[in-house]
Each structure stands twice: as C-alpha cells, then as structure tokens.
Amino acid sequence: MKSLKYSRQRECIKTFLMGRKDHPTADTVYMHVRQEYPNISLGTVYRNLTLLSDIGEISRLNVGDGVDRFDADTSPHQHIVCTCCGCVQDIYLPDAEKILNYAGNFYGGIITTQTINFRGTCSDCLKISNNN
Amino acid sequence: MKSLKYSRQRECIKTFLMGRKDHPTADTVYMHVRQEYPNISLGTVYRNLTLLSDIGEISRLNVGDGVDRFDADTSPHQHIVCTCCGCVQDIYLPDAEKILNYAGNFYGGIITTQTINFRGTCSDCLKISNNN
DNA sequence: CTTGAAAATAATAACTATTACTGTTTTTAT
DNA sequence: ATAAAAACAGTAATAGTTATTATTTTCAAG
Question: Exposed e or buried b for every residue in A46-74, given b needs 16+ CB within 10 A?
C-alpha cells in the first residue's frame, strides 16, 4: 500500500491540464510546466501523468496518431481528430452508453467500456478552405 | 507515379494476413513469414504492411495497446480488446454509420470516419473464470 | 521543532515500435 | 538480353515512453 505524498510538480501538471481542452501530449505538458519548474524532467511529467491516470484523476487517450494525450475531463465523452490541422476536440454524444449496450447483442463475451474516435475537419479548417 | 512491382515477400505477407482473424502485429507477421522467407527483414515487413494499407488492401489498426495491428478485412467493422487475455476480436455492428451521422448533430465541423473500440472479457476468458 | 522513513525528484540510460538509409538483388517492360 | 525502377536485407536512426539511481522533499511520530 503505497501512500501518496504531495508534490508541487504534480499539482502544477494537474492544474495545467485542467485549464486545457485540447488534450495535450506529455511533451506539451513538459514544455509548459517547465516555465514554472525549469528543472522538471520529462520523466517526472510522464510519471505523474501515469500516476494521475492510474488513480482516475485524469484520463490518458490515444487517438491513433502515435502519441498519448491527456485529458483532465474524465467524464464519458468522445473525440474527433481533424485530419487537416491535427487538433483533437471533444464530442459529447448523448446516450452514448446505448451504443455499448447495442454492441453487446453482437458479441459473445462481456463489453465493459467503449472508445469512439471520429475523424474529419474541424470548423476552423472548414472556414479557411471556404475562404479560397 | 510509382508503379507497383510484384514481390513474393509481399504476396506471402498478404496471404498470411488473409488467413488470420486475430489482427496480428508486424512482429507476429514477421515471425510467420520468416518460416517461408528466413532472410526477410522486419523492415521489409513494415514497408509492405504500410504499402498494402496505403493502397487499401489491408487496414492498420490501433486498439490503444501501443502496437499497430493489421487486418486483411477492410470492410467497416469494430474491435473489442479482451482485458483478460489481450486478444482483439471483430464486432460487426449493423447500422454503425448511423452513429457517425448522429455525432454530426453535436459537432460544428464535418465528420468523415469513425473508429469504435470496445474493451471487455472475451467468451473464452469468461469460461475459464466460471470454472473456478 | 527535529527526525527519519517513504515518496518524489532530476538526470540519464534503456527499451520498444517504427521508419530511414544504403548497397545489392529482383522484377518487368522494351 | 538489358536496363531502369522497385524491392530487398541489413543496419542505423528516430520517437515515445519507461526504468534506474543517487539526491531531495514530504510528513507523521516522537
């Protein structure tokens, strides 16, 4: 039973994440937290991100672009990756759990969780392409 | 315009993939193809897997376990990862495209594709735990 | 307050999956 | 047959992440 001790670095990482909605990567977190703690190491960032997601305070997500991203919003929701600019945005699908239940009808085992990732073009990129 | 030339190695990789439903990783493909072509290199396996997925003959998938997997079935379907044994199985959700259309109502941009991954316990692992 | 054990840190090494490079071999159209 | 394009094997390099280690910080008990 390993107890948790306070650390300013972890606090700073958590606070940073809570202020962002763009699902930053570990490296992005590192770059920003370093402004407050110039000596922080990337390993510390990774260790705390992993710890925080292990205890459920943040979630780690993978939208298929080869990097792990982190999200302070742990409520159930979905993500969309813009194939134009690469941004990762939230989508809150009402009744998303119905999809999981529905899928259960077509599978012999038990389904417990689902991850839905969309891909498309974000509204900003749409505007830009319309300006041509 | 780069033309495609035949290669036995690529043929063998494709044939191997078509005979499998378990979404092998590049390394698994490598292990098996090496039985027929002992000198094949992992780079060749990766290059051909990438080429085949680029031209749409196979698909590359990422179920969030840090490794790319490959699937000779390019028809739209979903996957479930067993959190017990790690296997990756197919789920064919009827009318899955309705989810994508539905999601469009809650997003300002354009959604073009979706990837749905489930997690749970496969029927084999359920049997084993029931035997206790 | 001290103190000391547990936890966290910075720095760095190691690891894993994947891609890039290079000189040689294979394919295939002429 | 030949020669240019493509693919190859072998190997090096890259990127993202985790592990190791010696030092520092946290914090409960005295």
Answer: eebbeebbeeeebbbbbbbeeebbbbbee
Q: Token pair for residue B85? A: 């044994």
Average pLDDT over residues B102-121: 97
Same-domain pairing of B26 and B52 = yes
Is the CB of residue A86 less than 8 Å away from at least one CB of chain B? Answer: no
Could you tell me the distance in Å between the CA of residue B85 and the C1' of nucleotide D13? 34
HEC letters along B80-103: EEECCCCCEEEECCCCCHHHHHHH
Give the CATH number for residue A90.
Answer: 3.30.1490.190
* B70 & B93 share domain: no
B91 with B33, same domain: the answer is no
pLDDT in tens, A72-107: 999 999 999 999 999 999 999 999 999 999 999 999
Yes or no, beta carbons of A113 and B119 under 8 Å apart: yes
Domain hosting B95: range is 78-132
Examine the fold and report which residue of B74, B92, B112 is the final residue of a domain before the chain moves on. Answer: B74
Domain count, chain A: 2
CA-to-C1' span, A35 to D19 (A) = 26
Protein-proximal nucleotides of chain C (any atom < 7 Å from a CB): 6-13, 16-21, 26-28
Nucleotides of D under 7 A from a protein CB: 5-12, 15-20, 25-27
